[in-house]
Protein backbone atom coordinates (compact mmCIF):
# COMPACT_ATOMS: atom_id res chain seq x y z
CA UNK A 1 0.00 0.00 0.00
CA UNK A 2 1.54 3.28 -1.13
CA UNK A 3 1.23 6.48 0.87
CA UNK A 4 1.99 9.99 -0.33
CA UNK A 5 2.91 13.06 1.73
CA UNK A 6 4.00 16.59 0.79
CA UNK A 7 6.05 18.82 3.08
CA UNK A 8 5.36 22.56 3.31
CA UNK A 9 8.29 23.25 0.95
CA UNK A 10 6.76 21.07 -1.80
CA UNK A 11 8.95 17.99 -1.25
CA UNK A 12 6.96 14.86 -2.07
CA UNK A 13 7.45 11.70 0.00
CA UNK A 14 6.14 8.33 -1.17
CA UNK A 15 6.35 5.24 1.00
CA UNK A 16 5.54 1.56 0.86
CA UNK A 17 5.57 -0.22 4.20
CA UNK A 18 6.67 -3.86 3.91
CA UNK A 19 6.60 -5.20 7.47
CA UNK A 20 7.91 -8.70 6.73
CA UNK A 21 11.39 -7.56 5.55
CA UNK A 22 14.38 -6.39 7.62
CA UNK A 23 15.71 -3.85 5.12
CA UNK A 24 14.75 -0.39 3.92
CA UNK A 25 15.62 1.37 0.66
CA UNK A 26 15.57 5.17 0.49
CA UNK A 27 15.98 7.26 -2.66
CA UNK A 28 16.25 11.00 -3.20
CA UNK A 29 15.07 11.75 -6.74
CA UNK A 30 15.72 15.02 -8.59
CA UNK A 31 14.14 15.79 -11.95
CA UNK A 32 17.31 16.76 -13.75
CA UNK A 33 19.29 14.76 -16.30
CA UNK A 34 21.01 15.20 -19.64
CA UNK A 35 17.66 16.26 -21.16
CA UNK A 36 17.82 19.43 -19.05
CA UNK A 37 21.27 20.39 -20.34
CA UNK A 38 22.72 22.21 -23.35
CA UNK A 39 25.71 21.42 -25.53
CA UNK A 40 27.67 23.90 -23.37
CA UNK A 41 27.07 22.22 -19.98
CA UNK A 42 26.36 18.67 -21.21
CA UNK A 43 27.35 16.19 -18.51
CA UNK A 44 26.81 18.53 -15.54
CA UNK A 45 23.99 16.42 -14.00
CA UNK A 46 26.21 13.33 -14.02
CA UNK A 47 29.18 15.33 -12.73
CA UNK A 48 27.16 16.68 -9.78
CA UNK A 49 26.09 13.12 -8.99
CA UNK A 50 29.78 12.15 -8.72
CA UNK A 51 30.73 15.24 -6.70
CA UNK A 52 28.14 14.62 -3.96
CA UNK A 53 30.24 11.60 -2.92
CA UNK A 54 33.50 13.60 -2.72
CA UNK A 55 33.08 15.05 0.74
CA UNK A 56 30.93 17.41 2.79
CA UNK A 57 31.68 20.02 5.46
CA UNK A 58 31.33 17.24 8.05
CA UNK A 59 32.70 14.13 6.26
CA UNK A 60 35.45 13.27 3.82
CA UNK A 61 34.73 11.01 0.85
CA UNK A 62 36.33 8.15 2.80
CA UNK A 63 34.15 8.85 5.85
CA UNK A 64 31.00 8.79 3.68
CA UNK A 65 32.00 5.33 2.46
CA UNK A 66 32.96 4.16 5.95
CA UNK A 67 29.68 5.39 7.45
CA UNK A 68 27.59 3.19 5.17
CA UNK A 69 30.07 0.27 5.12
CA UNK A 70 30.12 0.31 8.93
CA UNK A 71 26.46 -0.69 9.07
CA UNK A 72 26.66 -3.18 6.19
CA UNK A 73 24.60 -0.92 3.93
CA UNK A 74 24.85 0.23 0.33
CA UNK A 75 24.89 3.75 -1.11
CA UNK A 76 24.98 4.70 -4.77
CA UNK A 77 23.51 7.01 -7.39
CA UNK A 78 22.70 7.18 -11.08
CA UNK A 79 21.92 9.83 -13.67
CA UNK A 80 19.58 9.23 -16.59
CA UNK A 81 18.13 11.32 -19.40
CA UNK A 82 15.42 12.76 -17.14
CA UNK A 83 16.42 12.32 -13.50
CA UNK A 84 19.16 11.81 -10.92
CA UNK A 85 18.73 9.47 -7.94
CA UNK A 86 20.79 9.05 -4.76
CA UNK A 87 19.83 5.91 -2.87
CA UNK A 88 20.74 3.72 0.08
CA UNK A 89 19.74 0.27 1.27
CA UNK A 90 20.29 -0.54 4.94
CA UNK A 91 18.91 -2.67 7.76
CA UNK A 92 15.64 -1.24 9.03
CA UNK A 93 17.32 -0.26 12.33
CA UNK A 94 19.68 2.15 10.54
CA UNK A 95 17.37 4.25 8.38
CA UNK A 96 17.83 7.43 10.45
CA UNK A 97 21.57 7.32 9.80
CA UNK A 98 20.96 6.71 6.07
CA UNK A 99 18.60 9.70 5.80
CA UNK A 100 21.10 11.89 7.68
CA UNK A 101 23.89 10.85 5.29
CA UNK A 102 21.82 11.57 2.17
CA UNK A 103 20.85 15.01 3.54
CA UNK A 104 24.47 15.80 4.42
CA UNK A 105 25.61 14.95 0.89
CA UNK A 106 22.80 16.95 -0.68
CA UNK A 107 23.12 20.12 1.41
CA UNK A 108 26.73 20.22 2.63
CA UNK A 109 28.90 18.99 -0.26
CA UNK A 110 32.03 21.13 -0.60
CA UNK A 111 32.70 20.97 -4.35
CA UNK A 112 36.40 21.43 -3.66
CA UNK A 113 38.29 22.57 -6.78
CA UNK A 114 41.01 19.92 -6.43
CA UNK A 115 38.38 17.21 -5.96
CA UNK A 116 36.53 18.49 -9.02
CA UNK A 117 39.66 18.20 -11.15
CA UNK A 118 40.32 14.66 -9.92
CA UNK A 119 36.72 13.64 -10.57
CA UNK A 120 36.84 15.08 -14.08
CA UNK A 121 39.77 12.75 -14.75
CA UNK A 122 37.64 9.84 -13.49
CA UNK A 123 34.79 10.79 -15.84
CA UNK A 124 37.18 11.27 -18.78
CA UNK A 125 38.14 7.64 -18.17
CA UNK A 126 34.47 6.67 -17.93
CA UNK A 127 33.86 8.32 -21.32
CA UNK A 128 36.87 6.45 -22.76
CA UNK A 129 35.56 3.19 -21.33
CA UNK A 130 32.22 3.90 -23.02
CA UNK A 131 34.06 4.52 -26.32
CA UNK A 132 35.67 1.11 -25.92
CA UNK A 133 32.26 -0.56 -25.57
CA UNK A 134 30.82 -0.65 -29.10
CA UNK A 135 27.43 -1.98 -27.93
CA UNK A 136 27.03 1.12 -25.74
CA UNK A 137 28.46 3.32 -28.48
CA UNK A 138 25.97 2.23 -31.16
CA UNK A 139 23.07 3.00 -28.79
CA UNK A 140 24.58 6.40 -28.03
CA UNK A 141 24.96 7.05 -31.76
CA UNK A 142 21.29 6.13 -32.22
CA UNK A 143 20.18 8.72 -29.65
CA UNK A 144 22.50 11.41 -31.03
CA UNK A 145 21.18 10.70 -34.54
CA UNK A 146 17.44 10.21 -34.08
CA UNK A 147 17.22 13.03 -31.48
CA UNK A 148 19.68 15.29 -33.28
CA UNK A 149 17.37 18.28 -32.80
CA UNK A 150 16.36 17.47 -29.22
CA UNK A 151 18.09 17.51 -25.82
CA UNK A 152 17.28 13.78 -25.54
CA UNK A 153 20.15 13.24 -27.97
CA UNK A 154 22.78 14.59 -25.55
CA UNK A 155 24.93 11.88 -23.91
CA UNK A 156 24.44 11.45 -20.15
CA UNK A 157 28.21 11.49 -19.46
CA UNK A 158 28.75 14.59 -21.59
CA UNK A 159 31.85 14.90 -23.77
CA UNK A 160 35.38 15.93 -22.80
CA UNK A 161 34.94 19.46 -24.18
CA UNK A 162 31.70 20.21 -22.30
CA UNK A 163 32.96 18.57 -19.10
CA UNK A 164 36.10 20.69 -19.21
CA UNK A 165 33.99 23.89 -19.08
CA UNK A 166 32.12 22.93 -15.90
CA UNK A 167 33.29 24.82 -12.79
CA UNK A 168 32.09 25.36 -9.23
CA UNK A 169 29.94 28.36 -10.22
CA UNK A 170 28.13 26.44 -12.96
CA UNK A 171 27.47 23.56 -10.54
CA UNK A 172 25.98 25.92 -7.93
CA UNK A 173 23.86 27.59 -10.63
CA UNK A 174 22.55 24.23 -11.90
CA UNK A 175 21.76 23.00 -8.39
CA UNK A 176 20.00 26.25 -7.46
CA UNK A 177 17.81 25.78 -10.52
CA UNK A 178 16.97 22.06 -10.27
CA UNK A 179 17.96 20.80 -6.79
CA UNK A 180 14.90 22.25 -5.10
CA UNK A 181 12.23 20.43 -3.04
CA UNK A 182 9.38 21.12 -5.45
CA UNK A 183 11.46 19.32 -8.12
CA UNK A 184 12.26 16.31 -5.91
CA UNK A 185 10.80 13.14 -4.42
CA UNK A 186 11.95 10.96 -1.53
CA UNK A 187 10.82 7.35 -1.97
CA UNK A 188 11.01 4.75 0.78
CA UNK A 189 10.24 1.02 0.68
CA UNK A 190 10.78 -1.49 3.46
CA UNK A 191 10.20 -1.87 7.19
CA UNK A 192 9.89 1.37 9.20
CA UNK A 193 7.87 3.20 11.82
CA UNK A 194 5.83 5.64 9.74
CA UNK A 195 5.62 8.51 12.26
CA UNK A 196 9.31 8.38 13.08
CA UNK A 197 10.29 8.12 9.41
CA UNK A 198 8.31 11.25 8.52
CA UNK A 199 9.70 13.15 11.53
CA UNK A 200 13.25 12.21 10.51
CA UNK A 201 12.74 13.30 6.90
CA UNK A 202 11.06 16.54 8.03
CA UNK A 203 13.96 17.35 10.37
CA UNK A 204 16.59 16.77 7.66
CA UNK A 205 14.79 18.09 4.55
CA UNK A 206 12.14 20.49 5.92
CA UNK A 207 14.48 23.52 5.73
CA UNK A 208 15.15 22.94 1.98
CA UNK A 209 14.01 26.12 0.25
CA UNK A 210 11.32 25.89 -2.40
CA UNK A 211 11.92 27.56 -5.77
CA UNK A 212 9.20 29.93 -6.95
CA UNK A 213 10.78 30.20 -10.41
CA UNK A 214 11.04 26.47 -11.25
CA UNK A 215 9.75 25.90 -14.76
CA UNK A 216 10.57 22.62 -16.51
CA UNK A 217 9.94 23.14 -20.21
CA UNK A 218 8.67 19.97 -21.83
CA UNK A 219 9.44 19.83 -25.52
CA UNK A 220 7.94 17.37 -27.96
CA UNK A 221 10.90 15.51 -29.42
CA UNK A 222 11.68 15.91 -33.11
CA UNK A 223 12.77 12.72 -34.85
CA UNK A 224 15.55 12.59 -37.42
CA UNK A 225 15.54 9.51 -39.66
CA UNK A 226 18.40 8.15 -41.77
CA UNK A 227 21.50 5.94 -41.71
CA UNK A 228 24.54 6.85 -39.59
CA UNK A 229 27.91 5.13 -39.31
CA UNK A 230 30.85 5.35 -36.92
CA UNK A 231 34.17 3.80 -37.87
CA UNK A 232 35.78 1.64 -35.17
CA UNK A 233 38.56 -0.90 -35.61
CA UNK A 234 36.77 -3.80 -33.90
CA UNK A 235 36.06 -7.43 -34.73
CA UNK A 236 32.26 -7.23 -34.68
CA UNK A 237 29.84 -4.83 -36.33
CA UNK A 238 27.10 -3.42 -34.10
CA UNK A 239 23.71 -2.35 -35.45
CA UNK A 240 20.79 -0.39 -33.97
CA UNK A 241 17.41 0.39 -35.50
CA UNK A 242 15.25 3.08 -33.88
CA UNK A 243 11.54 3.78 -34.41
CA UNK A 244 9.46 6.58 -32.93
CA UNK A 245 7.96 5.13 -29.74
CA UNK A 246 5.47 5.98 -27.01
CA UNK A 247 5.57 8.99 -24.68
CA UNK A 248 5.88 8.35 -20.93
CA UNK A 249 2.52 7.76 -19.25
CA UNK A 250 0.57 6.69 -22.35
CA UNK A 251 -1.53 3.53 -22.03
CA UNK A 252 -0.37 2.55 -25.53
CA UNK A 253 2.83 1.40 -23.83
CA UNK A 254 1.18 -1.86 -22.75
CA UNK A 255 0.29 -3.12 -26.26
CA UNK A 256 3.81 -2.09 -27.31
CA UNK A 257 5.32 -4.12 -24.46
CA UNK A 258 3.31 -7.15 -25.58
CA UNK A 259 4.48 -6.71 -29.19
CA UNK A 260 8.09 -6.08 -28.16
CA UNK A 261 8.16 -9.26 -26.09
CA UNK A 262 7.22 -11.28 -29.15
CA UNK A 263 9.51 -9.35 -31.51
CA UNK A 264 12.79 -9.28 -29.57
CA UNK A 265 12.18 -8.89 -25.85
CA UNK A 266 12.98 -12.44 -24.74
CA UNK A 267 14.84 -15.64 -25.65
CA UNK A 268 11.68 -17.06 -27.21
CA UNK A 269 11.17 -13.94 -29.38
CA UNK A 270 11.06 -14.05 -33.17
CA UNK A 271 14.32 -12.16 -33.73
CA UNK A 272 16.27 -14.25 -31.22
CA UNK A 273 14.89 -17.58 -32.41
CA UNK A 274 15.20 -16.87 -36.13
CA UNK A 275 18.50 -14.97 -36.37
CA UNK A 276 20.47 -16.42 -33.46
CA UNK A 277 19.08 -19.85 -32.68
CA UNK A 278 18.06 -21.13 -36.13
CA UNK A 279 20.70 -19.40 -38.28
CA UNK A 280 23.52 -18.71 -35.79
CA UNK A 281 24.27 -15.31 -37.34
CA UNK A 282 24.57 -13.26 -34.13
CA UNK A 283 25.47 -13.74 -30.50
CA UNK A 284 23.24 -10.95 -29.22
CA UNK A 285 19.99 -9.57 -30.63
CA UNK A 286 17.14 -7.92 -28.74
CA UNK A 287 14.57 -5.11 -28.80
CA UNK A 288 13.10 -2.83 -26.14
CA UNK A 289 10.92 0.29 -25.80
CA UNK A 290 12.07 3.47 -24.00
CA UNK A 291 9.63 6.15 -22.82
CA UNK A 292 10.31 9.79 -21.97
CA UNK A 293 8.30 12.94 -21.47
CA UNK A 294 7.71 14.22 -24.99
CA UNK A 295 8.96 11.17 -26.86
CA UNK A 296 10.03 7.56 -26.93
CA UNK A 297 11.81 4.87 -28.94
CA UNK A 298 11.51 1.26 -29.98
CA UNK A 299 15.08 0.01 -30.40
CA UNK A 300 16.43 -3.16 -32.02
CA UNK A 301 20.09 -4.12 -31.47
CA UNK A 302 22.27 -6.82 -33.06
CA UNK A 303 25.99 -7.58 -33.00
CA UNK A 304 27.55 -9.72 -35.76
CA UNK A 305 30.52 -10.52 -37.96
CA UNK A 306 31.02 -7.58 -40.39
CA UNK A 307 30.43 -9.86 -43.39
CA UNK A 308 26.94 -10.67 -42.09
CA UNK A 309 25.67 -7.11 -41.64
CA UNK A 310 23.58 -6.98 -44.82
CA UNK A 311 22.08 -10.41 -44.23
CA UNK A 312 21.15 -9.64 -40.62
CA UNK A 313 19.64 -6.29 -41.67
CA UNK A 314 17.59 -8.07 -44.34
CA UNK A 315 16.33 -10.69 -41.88
CA UNK A 316 15.37 -8.04 -39.30
CA UNK A 317 13.44 -6.07 -41.89
CA UNK A 318 11.77 -9.27 -43.09
CA UNK A 319 10.57 -9.96 -39.53
CA UNK A 320 9.29 -6.40 -39.22
CA UNK A 321 7.49 -6.61 -42.55
CA UNK A 322 5.94 -9.93 -41.56
CA UNK A 323 4.80 -8.36 -38.29
CA UNK A 324 3.19 -5.46 -40.17
CA UNK A 325 1.44 -7.69 -42.72
CA UNK A 326 0.36 -10.67 -40.61
CA UNK A 327 0.27 -9.26 -37.09
CA UNK A 328 0.16 -11.59 -34.08
CA UNK A 329 -1.98 -14.55 -33.11
CA UNK A 330 -4.24 -14.55 -30.05
CA UNK A 331 -2.10 -17.34 -28.58
CA UNK A 332 1.09 -15.28 -28.94
CA UNK A 333 -0.54 -12.24 -27.33
CA UNK A 334 -1.80 -14.27 -24.36
CA UNK A 335 1.59 -15.92 -23.83
CA UNK A 336 3.32 -12.55 -23.99
CA UNK A 337 0.94 -11.05 -21.43
CA UNK A 338 1.60 -13.90 -18.98
CA UNK A 339 5.34 -13.46 -19.47
CA UNK A 340 5.12 -9.71 -18.86
CA UNK A 341 3.10 -10.20 -15.68
CA UNK A 342 5.58 -12.76 -14.36
CA UNK A 343 8.59 -10.56 -15.13
CA UNK A 344 6.91 -7.54 -13.53
CA UNK A 345 5.95 -9.29 -10.29
CA UNK A 346 9.35 -10.99 -9.94
CA UNK A 347 10.98 -7.59 -10.47
CA UNK A 348 9.22 -6.25 -7.36
CA UNK A 349 10.73 -8.81 -5.00
CA UNK A 350 13.29 -6.40 -3.45
CA UNK A 351 12.88 -3.16 -1.49
CA UNK A 352 15.30 -1.48 -3.94
CA UNK A 353 13.14 -2.21 -6.98
CA UNK A 354 9.99 -1.06 -5.18
CA UNK A 355 11.67 2.16 -4.05
CA UNK A 356 12.78 2.79 -7.63
CA UNK A 357 9.35 2.04 -9.08
CA UNK A 358 7.39 4.37 -6.79
CA UNK A 359 10.03 7.11 -6.78
CA UNK A 360 10.41 7.40 -10.54
CA UNK A 361 6.64 7.21 -11.11
CA UNK A 362 5.93 9.96 -8.60
CA UNK A 363 8.75 12.17 -9.90
CA UNK A 364 7.94 11.96 -13.61
CA UNK A 365 4.23 11.10 -13.68
CA UNK A 366 3.02 12.49 -10.32
CA UNK A 367 1.12 9.20 -10.08
CA UNK A 368 1.86 5.71 -8.80
CA UNK A 369 0.14 2.65 -10.21
CA UNK A 370 -0.22 -0.30 -7.84
CA UNK A 371 0.92 -3.76 -8.98
CA UNK A 372 -2.76 -4.69 -9.26
CA UNK A 373 -3.39 -1.74 -11.63
CA UNK A 374 -0.35 -2.63 -13.76
CA UNK A 375 -1.50 -6.26 -14.05
CA UNK A 376 -4.97 -5.04 -15.05
CA UNK A 377 -3.44 -2.82 -17.76
CA UNK A 378 -1.50 -5.79 -19.15
CA UNK A 379 -4.57 -8.04 -18.99
CA UNK A 380 -6.63 -5.39 -20.81
CA UNK A 381 -4.46 -5.55 -23.97
CA UNK A 382 -6.46 -7.03 -26.84
CA UNK A 383 -5.33 -8.45 -30.17
CA UNK A 384 -6.65 -5.37 -32.01
CA UNK A 385 -4.59 -3.12 -29.70
CA UNK A 386 -1.41 -4.87 -30.82
CA UNK A 387 -2.42 -4.50 -34.48
CA UNK A 388 -2.89 -0.74 -34.03
CA UNK A 389 0.44 -0.26 -32.25
CA UNK A 390 2.32 -2.28 -34.89
CA UNK A 391 0.92 -0.06 -37.65
CA UNK A 392 1.73 3.08 -35.63
CA UNK A 393 5.27 2.27 -34.50
CA UNK A 394 6.82 -0.04 -37.09
CA UNK A 395 6.96 2.32 -40.06
CA UNK A 396 9.78 1.06 -42.27
CA UNK A 397 9.96 4.43 -44.02
CA UNK A 398 10.64 6.20 -40.73
CA UNK A 399 13.55 4.42 -39.13
CA UNK A 400 17.01 5.46 -37.95
CA UNK A 401 19.81 2.95 -38.52
CA UNK A 402 23.18 3.27 -36.77
CA UNK A 403 26.24 1.09 -37.28
CA UNK A 404 29.57 0.94 -35.45
CA UNK A 405 32.28 -1.11 -37.15
CA UNK A 406 35.24 -1.15 -39.51
CA UNK A 407 35.15 1.40 -42.32
CA UNK A 408 35.83 -1.07 -45.12
CA UNK A 409 32.96 -3.33 -44.05
CA UNK A 410 30.67 -0.30 -43.89
CA UNK A 411 31.15 0.43 -47.55
Automatic annotation (TrEMBL):
<dbReference type="GO" id="GO:0004222">
    <property type="term" value="F:metalloendopeptidase activity"/>
</dbReference>
<dbReference type="InterPro" id="IPR050361">
    <property type="entry name" value="MPP/UQCRC_Complex"/>
</dbReference>
<dbReference type="InterPro" id="IPR001431">
    <property type="entry name" value="Pept_M16_Zn_BS"/>
</dbReference>
<protein>
    <submittedName>
        <fullName>Predicted Zn-dependent peptidase</fullName>
    </submittedName>
</protein>
<comment type="similarity">
    <text>Belongs to the peptidase M16 family.</text>
</comment>
<dbReference type="GO" id="GO:0006508">
    <property type="term" value="P:proteolysis"/>
</dbReference>
<feature type="domain" description="Peptidase M16 N-terminal">
    <location>
        <begin position="12"/>
        <end position="158"/>
    </location>
</feature>
<dbReference type="GO" id="GO:0046872">
    <property type="term" value="F:metal ion binding"/>
</dbReference>
<dbReference type="Pfam" id="PF00675">
    <property type="entry name" value="Peptidase_M16"/>
</dbReference>
<dbReference type="InterPro" id="IPR011249">
    <property type="entry name" value="Metalloenz_LuxS/M16"/>
</dbReference>
<dbReference type="InterPro" id="IPR007863">
    <property type="entry name" value="Peptidase_M16_C"/>
</dbReference>
<feature type="domain" description="Peptidase M16 C-terminal">
    <location>
        <begin position="165"/>
        <end position="340"/>
    </location>
</feature>
<dbReference type="Pfam" id="PF05193">
    <property type="entry name" value="Peptidase_M16_C"/>
</dbReference>
<dbReference type="InterPro" id="IPR011765">
    <property type="entry name" value="Pept_M16_N"/>
</dbReference>
